[in-house]
Known about the structure:
The protein contains six helices and six strands. It is an alpha+beta fold. It has two domains: 4-88, Roll (Ubiquitin-like (UB roll)), CATH 3.10.20.810; 109-209, Helix Hairpins (Orthogonal Bundle), CATH 1.10.287. The strands form two sheets. The protein has a four-stranded mixed beta sheet with strand order 2-1-6-5, with helices on one face. A two-stranded antiparallel ribbon has the order 3-4.
Amino acid sequence: MIDINQLKFDKDGLIPAIVVDDKSGEVLTLAYMNEESLKISLEKRLTCFYSRSRKCLWLKGETSGNYQHIKSITADCDLDALVVKVEKDGPACHTGADSCFFNTLIQDETGAKFSMQSLYELLLDRKKNLPEGSYTTYLFEKGIDKILKKVGEESTEVIIAGKADDKKETIYEIADLAYHIMVLMCQMDISVDEVKAELASRHIIDHKVKQEKMTK
């Protein structure tokens, strides 16, 4: 164990803090701490940073509710950078993305792993940059009415395929529906974590109901 006094803050009194999801290992954000914000982080067990643009401290989640509960803080070999592992209450990024790191510069497609979060972040990038020739760009440019129309159409296609008991076609249509629902989520600034939290709350309720029935 090291002491805070052993850390090497830069000439501005700051030290970079790489925030990592304790469960998934995903890098969430890169922020900066000064000695005061680090002390607050240690005391509250919540991430507190120093804003270089606003020149003030900010407690992550104080306005958004997306607090980051600290599980560990580790310094590197030179004692001039920190890795902060957290359990988060919501998205790390102000855009609603789970992580601030979603603007891809290069990607080895053979090693790329698909996830709903990675799709969401790709769609956020499409919404932000609106690349020409992209179907997703077309949807965002047309707006909410077009997106909702497509969600309705794809829902109908899922029903038709399911009714026909065609497994392969149903999978295909569910994928189409999932994509359009994700576009709707991006349009409405609904994060993957918010949907997960809603599903988790229902699971807890169902579990409690089952336990109550078992005790009767």
